Amino acid sequence: MELATPPCPPPAEAPPEKPPEAPPRLDVLVTSVASDAHTWNLIYLQLLLEESGHRVTNLGACVPDQLMVDECRTRRPDLIVISTVNGHGSNDGRRVVRRLRDCAELRTTPIVIGGKLGITGGEDDVHVDELVEAGFDAVFEESAGIVGFRDFVRALPAGAPR
Question: pLDDT value at position 161?
Answer without folding.
Answer: 46
